[in-house]
# Entry
Amino acid sequence: APPDNKPTPEERRNCEIYFNREMESLTRVKVILALDKFAFDAVAHELKSRNLNLPKPLLFRHGGEFQVGPYW
# Structure
């Protein structure tokens, strides 16, 4: 693992294409579970790109829950 077990910027970019492809393949999503800030930020970025009405501020917190809508 990189220093402090955090992905490097290069690792993030390398994973992004696979994450985006996976998100595009999902339909009628009811729940997304992001287990850390890295995952939360990736999901938040994807949801923002879909112009969904997101709560503000949309900040990571342990045990946090956000309702985005019934489905996308």
